[in-house]
Amino acid sequence: MDFLYAPDLPFKKDDYYGKFDFIVSFSSIEHSGLGRYGDPIDPIGDIREMNKIHCMLKPRGLLFLGFAVGVDKVTFNAHRIYGRIRLAMMFEGFKLLKIFRLGSTVSEQHMLKVLSDEKYENQYLFVLEKKDD
Fold first, then answer.
1. 16-130: what fold?
2. Chain-wide mean pLDDT for the chain?
3. What is the CA radius of gyration of the chain?
4. In terms of Cα–Cα distance, which of 71, 86, 81 is closest to 117?
């Protein structure tokens, strides 16, 4: 089992290309590019991180990705809420396998409701598979 210390990635990117069977990111990527933790402001920082993850996974590798879902918005400089628009951008190059919340599988019908309800924001875990290159 390998552990990747994220700040080392730019210096060792060739070592990690297509190496991992799975990657886990929970309550992290939604902060990327917002400057909250000293990172530079980057409106697509989260999408850049997804591209890095995509490159590190083997074909058909799995990504366990957790973040808040609701109607698309940025709560600057704290985090993003992912809705219909941003989710599509984040999932580019991946196939959605399952969605979980509180240990239970979430239906597509439930997710459609969540994505259109402005009062609803909760953490979900998405299981994604990297599409074959």
1. Rossmann fold (3.40.50)
2. 92
3. 15
4. 71
